[in-house]
């Protein structure tokens, strides 16, 4: 019996056609399509893009019985499954094909055998020409003129996107023995030389703080379409997909800053969330919604640290960093939802309305309120430790104790480690800003002053708050 699922993929127009050979089974079995994807904590309902799902029995195609929206039953003796997937959405977490691009997030469109998630995958890109370039963190080889990729198991394949195109821009660099690749489809990265230098700088800076990088290699997959409006980034175990378009946005100063902010944020995720991960997501359960209250760590700490590392690495100066914090604080101060629902509860509810404005004043944002809380924690730790320790010290400890061995993180463990590093508990910050809805203004002013910055605000006639930072 094979311990592999062998998958062949062909495309036609906007569709991808899959044919998979699963190990033989003498009894009824089930196949599952993920219903959400890591990085976006809401149901993606990817089965809405499935156009056909059949098994092959004695050379005949038979329709498979659906058990729920994302699960099908397969009769005994059937081991070949064929399905179609409509792939015409382009963003950092989607699957998209057109003449000069095959871009696949397997978590959208790949099946796995229920109860046999340890099965490996061998995936043949049957109609991708041999002279195209393939960008992916998956190992691959050329077999009979075809790209053939391997994945260890279900979790590995679901976290490993690829893009293939006749033309991909590429640059490589090495930091502390880790091989980094920067790929781009569509536009060439803006200010390409500086673009790569900045990647080297923030990679060095982040690795220096954590001490080690989780993998031997890492791939930045940039989708910079000339003709599609998009702004988005998604983290993966050994790679990230970052999408920005159209062309004039990519080549603007705004575009460059956006790409750098997203890139540093996504690399930080290689530690925080891909390995230091809330226990509810360890491992990922793709069959149902998996709410966690720890989005303020997963996305909040990452949002704060991503920009802080751009500053630490010298990619941006203090003025730039203050500009980014002003934008963050503006979003924070102008969202009355932060005073209605805690960021922990808002995290639990991302599955309902976390990725749209939703009901005005209902909820906070794990990115914004989470980053504000991370900043307050960072300043508190620096203050009480006399600048000896910081939130980075705590994150490094979490990497050593939880991330490396992939032990799921709990709220208790997180706040205990912060207390251990600080030398005193941060329960007031936890109770007020993670699990409570206290207004943060006074603590923000104090924390900024600790950093030599004065925080002011103006309020216009419509009640819109504009924060302003200046040197003390
Ligand atoms: Zn993120």
Query: In the CATH hierarchy, what is the class of the largest domain?
Result: Mainly Alpha
CA-based gyration radius: 23 Å
Domains (count): 3
Q: State which percent range the strand residues make up.
A: 25-35%
Structural class: alpha+beta
Helix content: 25-40%
CATH architecture of the largest domain: Orthogonal Bundle
Bound molecules: zinc ion
Number of strands: 23
| CATH topology description of the largest domain | Neutral Protease, domain 2
Q: How many helices does DSSP assign? A: 14
Protein described:
There is one protein chain. The longest helix is centred in the middle third of the chain and has 19 residues, at 192-210. This protein is 32% helix and 28% strand. Helix 5 (253-269) packs across helix 6 (295-312), helix 6 packs antiparallel against helix 7 and helix 10 (368-384) crosses helix 14 (441-450). It is α+β, with helices and mostly antiparallel strands. It has three domains: 4-165, Immunoglobulin-like (Sandwich), CATH 2.60.40; 168-263, Neutral Protease, domain 2, CATH 1.10.390; 271-281 and 289-472, Orthogonal Bundle (Neutral Protease, domain 2). The strands form five sheets. Strands 5-4-8-2-1-12-15-14 form an eight-stranded mixed β-sheet. The protein has a five-stranded mixed β-sheet with strand order 17-18-19-21-20. It has a four-stranded antiparallel β-sheet with strand order 6-7-3-11, with no helix packed on it. It is built from 14 helices and 23 strands. The structure holds zinc ion. Residues 235, 265, 269, 299, 302 line the site of zinc ion (ZN). Residues 235, 265, 269, 299, 302 line the site of zinc ion.
């Amino acid at each position: 019996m094979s311990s592999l699922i062998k998958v062949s993929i062909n495309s036609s127009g906007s569709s991808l056609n899959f044919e998979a050979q699963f190990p033989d089974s003498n009894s009824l079995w089930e196949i599952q399509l993920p219903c959400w994807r890591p990085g976006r904590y809401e149901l993606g309902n990817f089965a809405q893009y499935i156009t056909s799902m059949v098994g092959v029995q004695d050379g005949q195609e038979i329709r498979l019985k659906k058990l729920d929206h994302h699960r099908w039953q397969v009769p005994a003796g059937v081991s070949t499954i064929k399905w179609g997937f409509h792939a015409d959405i382009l963003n950092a977490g989607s699957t998209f094909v057109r003449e000069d691009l095959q871009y696949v997030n397997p978590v959208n469109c790949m099946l796995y055998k229920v109860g046999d998630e340890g099965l490996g995958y061998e995936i043949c890109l049957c109609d991708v020409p041999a002279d195209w370039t393939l960008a992916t963190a998956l190992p691959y080889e050329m077999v009979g003129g075809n790209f053939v990729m391997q994945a260890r198991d279900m979790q590995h394949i679901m976290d490993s996107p690829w893009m293939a195109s006749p033309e991909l821009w590429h640059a490589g660099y090495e930091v502390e023995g880790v091989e980094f690749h920067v790929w781009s489809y569509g536009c060439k990265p803006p200010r390409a030389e500086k673009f790569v230098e900045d990647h080297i700088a923030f990679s060095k800076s982040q690795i220096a703080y954590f001490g080690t990088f989780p993998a031997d290699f890492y791939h930045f997959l940039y989708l910079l379409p000339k003709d599609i409006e998009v702004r988005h980034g998604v983290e993966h175990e050994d790679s990230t997909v970052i999408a920005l378009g159209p062309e004039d946005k990519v080549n603007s100063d705004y575009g460059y800053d956006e790409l750098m902010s997203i890139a540093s944020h996504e690399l930080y995720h290689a530690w925080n969330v891909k390995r230091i991960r809330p226990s509810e997501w360890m491992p990922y359960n793709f069959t149902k919604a998996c709410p966690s209250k720890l989005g303020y760590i997963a996305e909040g700490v990452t949002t704060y640290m991503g920009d802080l590392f751009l500053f630490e690495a010298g990619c941006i100066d203090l003025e730039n960093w203050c500009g980014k914090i002003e934008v963050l604080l503006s979003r924070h101060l102008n969202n009355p939802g932060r005073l209605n629902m805690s960021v922990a509860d808002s995290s639990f509810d991302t599955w309902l309305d976390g990725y749209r404005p939703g009901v005005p004043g209902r909820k906070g944002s794990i990115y914004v309120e989470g980053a504000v809380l991370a900043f307050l924690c960072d300043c508190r730790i620096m203050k009480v430790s006399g600048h000896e320790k910081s939130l980075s010290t705590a994150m490094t400890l979490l990497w050593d104790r939880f991330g490396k061995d992939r032990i799921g993180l709990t709220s208790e463990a997180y706040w205990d480690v912060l207390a251990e590093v600080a030398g005193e508990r941060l329960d007031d910050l936890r109770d007020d800003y993670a699990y409570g809805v206290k207004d943060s203004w006074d603590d923000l002013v104090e924390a900024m002053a600790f950093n030599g910055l004065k925080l002011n605000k103006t309020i216009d006639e419509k009640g819109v708050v504009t924060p302003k930072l200046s040197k003390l």
